[in-house]
Amino acid sequence: MNNSKRILVTGSAGRVGRAAVAALVARGHTVIGFDVRPTPGVPAAQSIVGTLTDAAALRAAATGADCIIHLAATPDDATYPRAAPPNDTDNFLDGLVPNNVIGPYQIMEAARVLKTPRVILASTGQVVTGQLLEDNGPVPTDAPFRPRYLYACTKVFLEALGQVYAREHGIGVLMVRLGWCPRDLGQVAEIEAMELGQDVFLSPGDAGSFFTAAVEVPTLPPYAVVYAASNFTHRPRYDLAPSKALLGWEPRDKWPTGAKAF
Question: In the prediction, which pLDDT does 221 show?
Fold first, then answer.
């Protein structure tokens, strides 16, 4: 394509990260991968192995980027619901805070210092789980937060952080609440057993097309929140209209397309 961009993708070796990288590379963009593992699909020189708490490594990886797609995170609560004592431990301090609180701060600081014009931050539909369980129709992007548990609470922080940096530092921030792209066969089985899971499913193909649309759309509001999910199987759970209005993006897949394509 003529308007090739340089894109930093964190969490680039994960399930959604690999889909985003593959789609962006196919569109002719230069992708820098940043993950704790090597990133498939990019040259070795463009695959940075590092952690979100390493501010210097993040800033080096982000230098020259037209856009940052921040996907890296500790992906969920260690246990939910919590067990009874003495087995009622969580991963908040050792997993969620370093990657899901400090990590996003480092990303936004890198964007501020480097004057990166656009940052796409991956939130989750778990921030409105309470709304989903009431099932009063598609949840709008401005619905009040009703987070599922501690992981979702860190994503509420992420959304607030993005809003602050957009307002105070002039960074264009797109917040995407991702649907459920299963990471293993165990999660595929969970989705198979849940109507809700099938309705909030996000296929790798739809994830890839979403992120290319988010990178390539010429203009966006200073701060916006959208959902990304595949077509529902039973009934709509997320309001996808803002994704179409802002990005021109609509899903093409539905459960179980691509679910087992690891």
Answer: 97
Cis peptide before 144 (omega within 30 of 0): no
Q: Which residue reads 């602050």 in tokens?
A: 164
The letter for the amino acid at 86 is P
Rounded Cα–Cα distance for residues 190 and 200 (Å): 12
Beta-ladder partners of 121: 70, 175
- Residue pair 217/27 in contact (Cβ under 8 Å)? The answer is no
Domain boundaries, the chain: 6-247
> Mean per-residue pLDDT for 91-115?
98
The phi-psi region of residue 257 (left if phi > 0; otherwise alpha if psi is between -120 and 50; otherwise beta) is beta
Q: What Å distances lie between residue 241 and 59, 140, 227, CA to CA?
A: 34, 9, 9
pTM across the whole model: 0.98
Q: Which long-range contacts (CB under 8 A, 24 or more apart) does 232-235 make?
A: 232/198, 232/199, 233/195, 233/198, 233/199, 233/201, 234/195, 234/198, 234/199, 235/135, 235/199
pLDDT value at residue 1: 59
Length of the chain: 262
| CA–CA–CA angle 220, 216, 59 (5° rounding) | 85
Please list the alpha-helical segments (H only) found in 63-148.
103-114, 129-134
Q: Rounded to an integer, what distance in angstroms lies between the CA atom of residue 59 and that of residue 32? A: 12
**Under CATH, what is the fold of the domain 6-247?**
Rossmann fold (3.40.50)
